[in-house]
Amino acid sequence: MDLLSGRKANEIFEGQVHVYKHMYAYLDSMCLKWCIELEIPTIIYNHEKPITLHELISILQVPPSKISGVERLMRHLSHNGFFDIVTIHDDDGGDENKEKKEAYALTIASELLVKGTEYCLTPMAKCGLNPLMSSSFNLLGKWTLEKNLTLSEISLGTNLWDFLSKNPSILTSFNESMASDSQMVKLALKDHSAVFEGLESIVDVGGGNGTISKIISDMFPKLKCIVFDLPHVVENFSGTSSNNLSFVGGDMFNYIPEADVVLLKWILHDWDDEHCVKILKKCKDAISKNTKEGKAIIIDFVINEKQDEFGLTQMKLRMDIAMTSMNGKERSEEEFNKLFLEAGFQDYKIFPLTGMYSLIVVYP
Description:
The chain is α/β, with parallel strands linked by helices.
């Protein structure tokens, strides 16, 4: 059967481009990994001005046979918004002899990959591009036909959390990635400090190394912050406790320490609806009855397919695939609303936080 017999040739060619574009999309990620491994953004930053290809390969000590590869990498990354190609003038000789040259300058995306800066996302990128994590998505077809197993159980032999607990170096990388992401939230919270005013205590559920809690405790020195996570996670950070910051180990499905506010950053997307309702019920139980300001604060993606500014929906839908393979999901406002009602909460409000994240305030 000639399925496409009614199609025009140009339509078929457009379909071919669409297929090929997605077929080779993994190379975008691999070029990002390549760039980070060579530390190109940091090299350009330390150069203190746009850098020519000759200068870059000299610093990298690239062998002659691979110069063309680096040139093509930079062309690809520039086309995709990681670098700007600018024209500079050679400083050698007089004004009349100055030679125009192409050079690469940082963009906001590559500035976020410069090592040692406050908002560096390199730890997040390294964790996400770790072959142990990324290669598992080759098994999505097999995962589909397995009744109960998550993708990590198929690819790694165990669930992700057990795998991390048994591999300290990867767990460290994971915690560093969450910490780097939390720095972006720090920037956003400056405009949403009102949600923490008048509170005496907050418990950061699944708070890892406490980056978010440290940010909040610095903003509100009188606010008592509790980082609550699995015992093997928090034991590594208990030594960093302070007057208003402490670490407590436990299981959020069994108990959450009492506080005026329960904070969940990027937690609910890890779980299916049944588990999320259990978590939210424990959150509701943990919210102090001694204050009128008690609430849960959720920092997470909210999918809105009608709004696709800067390709946000595409990015969120990609994350939805990743979380679905772990038996979690990214959710729309309607899906969040259903969870809140089932868990016994009365009302909620959603505020834009960062370009990706929303701030959801849920009232018991």
